[in-house]
Amino acid sequence: MLKTRYTIAYVALMTLVVVASNFLVQFPLNAEVAGINLADILTWGAFSYPIAFLITDLTNRQFGPQAARKVVFAGFVVGVTLSFFTSVPRIAIASGSAYLAGQLLDIAVFNRLRRQAWWRAPLVGSLIGSALDTVMFFSLSFAAFFVLLGPNDPFALEAAPILGVFATEAPRWISWAIGDFAVKMIVGLVMLLPYGALMNVLRPMQAARAS
């Protein structure tokens, strides 16, 4: 009964993060750092989305990988449904595929490292999962090679200085991916604070310890 209640709570939190991220991705971050116009490469959704990894890791810590996968699949269903209503099919496919692959990789890495230093499993798992998520989403969404998923976006494929400040040029989506992953790394580090604070509250159940 306790596991069911907590799992429902984790599913609700994951759903909230997915819904919020789908909404916030519409709003560019209007700021400038070191000459980089962040509005050109980031939206507010980049800051909310990495919280999904915290939810996955807390579920994994408390109940093990099987429960964490259930939470991830619930978020996948919500995310894909929203994406097909709010964006083109290619973006929806990329978003769902990247989310699922990144979260499942996070679960596998976390489970392998769960008996090491308390911070290692959530940090390494979320960073590796985020890296895969970023590569998959931006490649499937915008790389010319994946045109079979839908029409290419000419603006995304235009050559421009990387991050708008470097001499080297690349398709615009490369800068978007770099900015997105940079935010995920920063948020991943910040998420260690709530994870550490909740460690003594959300203790692993016996099944999770045996995983």
From TrEMBL:
Involved in the import of queuosine (Q) precursors, required for Q precursor salvage. The chain crosses the membrane at residues 7-27, 33-55, 67-85, 91-111, 123-149, 181-202. This is Probable queuosine precursor transporter. Pfam families: Vut_1. GO terms for cellular component: plasma membrane. Belongs to the vitamin uptake transporter (VUT/ECF) (TC 2.A.88) family. Q precursor transporter subfamily. The keyword Electron transport does not apply. The keyword Metal-binding does not apply. It comes from Rhizobium leguminosarum. InterPro entries: YhhQ. It is found in: Cell inner membrane. Keywords: Cell inner membrane, Cell membrane, Membrane, Transmembrane, Transmembrane helix, Transport. GO terms for molecular function: transmembrane transporter activity. The lineage of its organism: Bacteria, Pseudomonadati, Pseudomonadota, Alphaproteobacteria, Hyphomicrobiales. It is a multi-pass membrane protein.
